[in-house]
Design brief:
heterotrimer; A mainly alpha (about 325); B alpha/beta (about 325); C mainly alpha (about 325); A: about 325 residues; mainly alpha; about 75% helix; B: about 325 residues; alpha/beta; eight-stranded mixed beta sheet; globular
């Protein structure tokens, strides 16, 4: 078990370093950092001096190491656009994205899992067919289109629910939350549904597929042959075995949600990290781009790690290695 | 002596894209209390389907299209699902082929035992646990107090099958259906499991329907044997008779194809051709295209099981055949 | 009964023709018997053909500035009050006919989607074959790269590549480059699944006796891979390709919507929707909604075809 953890940690570090390399290359070699940072009036000597000061003439390996170390210390330099530290900009917008991501993840799980279970157990009912048709549409619509349609339906046509912004937020220490105000909660609904719809259909189809597979297994057949009640068979045995792989994939999807949040943030002008990144790409603000990259990589890698560990906790086959005759 | 299990003219059909597939057709047999009936035949002959039909686990769109299944004289094939569920486990137990996949990998075996026991009896969890421990001891699991907390993957194949037997016999069913219980096990372990099965059923007074393609197991264990071919019973009778003096040409072919360790080292007989696919069963007697003794009535008229000596056989060699032009 | 008709040699020679085999195969059977799949195929066909023949079908070339008349702008669809039958689905803020923009936009969307999928497929299959056949370090490197890349959603990767190209080439990028940059970035984000599947099949085939025999005789590895491994892989690859096509179209639309894709001078459906979003509150819903419906229909149809293909090719369900 320990060996497993150590191996996964090493893998995670390798991934992070690779991403750091890419981010560093972006940072250092795409365009000229000096030219982006200073104004037109700066003389050539001043630029050369700046270059020396920032250590841009040092060997690449040293620059890379410096980059990794300062990134680990959360120092990503200053934004080209705003001239303020990148980390401040990101920290400011982090809560907005996280709340959105968590709300939509919750939505997708709470609706997706029951729908999936229902369609697996009642394969031929009309309700199942409706769910399945809806799921097909959910998977086919791009996130932004869902957002547009929802905006068209609710704020434009029906006049309820806001179509942009986060509403009123409350500051708790370094975190700003929209969950404590009515307008904040209302503003959260459409974006959360938009972001969560794709995940919800994914989870529903996943649960359905897994559960149907599980219901075909020998141990379910044997459970029925032993006369266990339908409830015990479907929910005690089948559901538990279904949720184990589903949980891992759902966990991995959380990372996806954080990434896709940027689309939703764009549609609804939600002031999160994603919108920040988007504007950075449009304005070629490299420090923000590379910082966002590293941050997202870190989130993904961490989530993957946690999910793997969770898997080990839940599935006894991985946990207990020794086999006794 | 009323039979424990009485199957009369059972037919099971599966509607498929290409038409209706008849998996078993007009199958009839009885099993008495404490008796072991072997059901033998090649893959696809319909042996497993017969067992699944008896315990009522045929999955739709498959269905029992005709006939009856009687447990101690009471019809069970047409019971509502809840009543059938109560019979399963309590009065009919079933054991499957692969012990690795028969047990839920996420639950300890103790929990799976206790669950089965409390479903069918009024015992409390603690009482059920005690019973589970004694069951594990009975099937020969060493140190049951420790093993009861283990997960299925921590057992070897033979031990797992013992656990499966414990689960199937937990609440003392009157009939045990064993579907290829030893096929997935090592040869050395097979004998132990079969002996265990036989001993347990004798002790609990259960009747056994032993489904297998292994004639050796049948010879060791069964009292009577039914030979199935293409979804029908070709011959059924006491084990000694069927093995030593087979009546049906198919049975003769089967016996001839078993290598013998003792005595005659004749060449192994091979039955030419192969069993027909269930979507393309020949008319009349299904075995006639491969039968060395096929004659006039065989392609047209289907033979029924008729008594012959101590057995029953479905073959025109033994009964007068019809002369009227009514084909089947 | 003529003896000739039952002559075993005769029977053997009367093998069914190839066409007959295909027509009676499971694939065609399940296609013809699923109404939904037929509808989906028809929808896809209609959209693709309409896009392909856009210059002939469109009532107006919306990108020819001489044709546009600002007085025609903001017209609602023809069946609503204030609509002009010349502009079936209305016009946008510049006087462009929405129907025509949808036709040209679909062209871009489909073109990029298909090219990106092809690119991803060729890249992924090649890498998969190489990784599976070579084994060792080459295999390890390719698979590590695949692992690292698959931790990230495709859209981020596509955005990254696009952003980099933007930085490298500056804002004045030639419109031709934009098209290929999108194909490249979307294609690069999707190769992993192909590579993994093909690698798996290659590994299986590599160890089979006939491959060893072929190598002993000296047949070049390329030929072995081509003739023996590839045919085994066609089924799963096709399924991946249809799913990918849908995803590629969605990714392209999303990138364009975010302003990172095709510009408004050469818009795809995504760009059109972005333009239209501004006018939703003004009540001019048709500028965004009609391209939206077209996009949804296209992707839905492709997904349905992919679903049918997956079920039809799944050996477990046969």
């Amino acid at each position: 078990m320990l060996a497993f953890i150590i191996r996964r940690l090493l893998q995670a570090i390798v991934v992070m370093l690779t991403v750091a390399l890419i981010a560093f290359t972006l940072f250092r070699f795409v365009g000229d950092p000096i030219n982006m940072m200073v104004g037109i009036e700066t003389t050539a000597e001043e630029r050369a001096q700046l270059r020396q000061q920032l250590g841009l003439n040092d060997p690449i390996a040293i620059q890379f190491t410096r980059f990794v170390v300062s990134s680990a210390r959360l120092n990503f330099g200053n934004s080209y656009q705003f001239k303020t530290p990148v980390i401040d900009l990101i920290a400011d917008r982090f809560p907005a994205t996280m709340e959105l991501a968590l709300a939509s993840a919750l939505f997708s799980l709470l609706i997706g899992i029951p729908m999936g279970v229902y369609t697996a157990l009642h394969r031929r009912s009309w309700l199942s067919n409706i769910f399945l048709a809806a799921s097909l549409i959910g998977i086919s619509l791009p996130t932004f289109l869902i957002g547009i349609l929802l905006i068209f339906l609710f704020p434009v046509t029906l006049g309820i629910l806001p179509s942009f912004g986060r509403g009123d937020v409350v500051r708790l220490g370094f975190w700003t939350t929209g969950l404590l105000t009515a307008s904040g909660l209302k503003a959260l609904i459409l974006p959360a549904v938009t972001l969560g719809l794709f995940q919800m259909t994914l989870i529903m189809r996943l649960v359905r597929g897994e559960m149907m597979e599980v219901l075909r297994t020998d141990y379910i057949k044997f459970a029925r042959a032993r006369g266990l009640t339908d409830r015990a068979v479907n929910f005690g045995h089948a559901l538990k075995n279904t949720l184990v792989p589903v949980m891992t994939i759902a966990g991995l999807q959380l990372g996806s949600i954080i990434a896709f949040a940027l689309i939703t943030e764009s549609v609804f002008q939600w002031p999160g990290m994603g919108l920040l990144f988007l504007k950075a790409v449009q304005n070629v603000d490299i420090p923000i781009m590379s910082a966002y990259l590293l941050l997202v990589a870190f989130i993904f890698v961490t989530i993957n790690l946690i999910v793997d560990l969770l898997y080990a906790v839940v599935d006894p086959r991985i946990r207990i290695d020794a086999k006794v005759a | 002596m009323t039979s424990v299990l009485s199957v009369r003219n059972l037919t099971v059909e599966f509607p498929t894209r290409r038409g209706i597939l008849t998996a078993i057709d007009d199958v009839s047999f009885d099993i008495g209390p404490g008796e072991v009936l072997g059901v033998v035949g090649e893959s696809g002959a319909g042996k497993s389907i017969t067992g699944t039909a008896v315990i009522g686990l045929i999955e739709p769109p498959g269905r029992i299209a005709g006939g009856e299944v009687l447990l101690r004289g009471q019809r069970i094939d047409n019971l509502p699902p809840e009543q059938m569920r109560r019979i399963r486990g309590k009065r009919i137990g079933m054991v499957f082929q692969d012990p690795l996949t028969s047990l839920n990998p996420l639950y300890r075996i103790g929990d799976q035992l206790v669950e089965t026991i409390t479903t069918h009896t009024n015992l409390s969890n603690a009482q059920a646990r005690t019973k589970a421990l004694s069951l594990l001891a009975e099937v020969g699991i060493p140190a049951p107090e420790m093993r009861i907390e283990a997960y299925p993957h921590q057992f070897s194949g033979g031990m797992r099958q013992r656990v499966v037997l414990a689960l199937a016999l937990a609440v003392e069913p009157e009939l045990v259906i064993a579907d290829e219980p030893t096929t997935a096990l090592d040869v050395s372990v097979q004998a132990q499991i079969i002996a265990l099965l036989k001993r347990l059923c004798a002790q609990h007074g259960a009747a056994v329907m032993l489904i297998t393609h292994d004639m050796g197991v049948i010879a060791e264990t069964a009292d009577r044997v039914a030979v199935m071919y293409a979804g029908r019973i070709a011959e059924i009778g006491p084990v000694r008779d069927v093995i030593k003096a087979p009546l049906h040409p198919y049975t003769k072919g089967l016996m001839g194809s078993i290598p013998s360790l003792t005595g005659e080292s004749d060449r192994l007989v091979q039955i030419p051709g192969s069993m027909p696919r269930l979507t393309a069963i020949p008319s009349g007697c299904p075995f006639h295209p491969r039968c060395p003794r096929a004659f006039v009535p065989c392609p047209t008229f289907r033979p029924e099981l008729q008594p012959e000596a101590h057995s029953q056989v479905a073959c025109w060699l033994y009964h007068p055949f019809p002369v009227t032009a009514e084909a089947s | 009964m003529s003896a000739q008709a039952n002559d075993p040699v005769e029977v053997m020679l009367r093998k069914p023709s190839r066409l007959s085999v295909i027509m009676h195969s499971d694939l065609v059977y399940s296609f013809l018997h699923s109404r939904i799949t037929i509808v989906a195929a028809l929808v896809t066909l209609v959209i693709v053909l309409a896009a392909a023949f856009a210059p002939w079908i469109a009532t107006q070339d919306p990108y020819d500035l001489r044709v546009l008349d600002i007085l025609n702008s903001h017209n609602p669809p023809a069946w609503l009050k204030g609509g002009d039958p010349q502009f079936l689905l209305g016009t946008d803020d510049q006087g462009r006919d929405v129907f025509s923009t949808i036709l040209y936009g679909s062209r871009q969307s489909i073109a990029i989607g298909v090219m990106a999928t092809l690119f991803a497929g060729i890249l992924g299959i090649s890498l998969g074959l190489i990784a599976g056949y070579s084994g060792g370090t080459v295999d390890a490197i390719i698979m590590r790269a695949a692992d690292i890349q698959s931790t990230f959603p495709a859209i981020l990767i596509a955005m990254l590549i696009d952003g980099t190209s933007r930085a490298l080439f500056g804002e004045q990028r030639n419109e031709q480059i934009v098209f290929w940059v999108m194909v490249l970035s979307i294609g690069l984000s999707f190769w992993v699944q192909y590579a993994r599947t093909v690698r798996g099949s290659t590994l299986v085939e590599k160890n089979k006796d006939y491959v060893l025999a072929a190598r002993l005789i000296g047949i070049r590895p390329g030929k072995i891979l081509f003739r023996h491994v590839l045919p085994n892989v066609v089924g799963p690859v096709l399924v991946i390709a249809t799913i990918n096509l849908a995803l590629a179209i969605i990714t392209e639309a999303t990138l364009s919507f975010l302003g990172l894709g095709l510009p408004s001078t050469q818009p795809s459906l995504g760009t059109l929707i972005q333009i239209g979003q501004k006018y939703l509150f003004a009540g001019e819903w048709w500028i965004a909604i009609f391209p939206g419906i077209t996009l949804a229909a296209l992707v839905l149809a492709v997904n349905l075809l992919g679903d049918w293909l997956r079920d039809a090719l799944n050996p477990k369900l046969r």
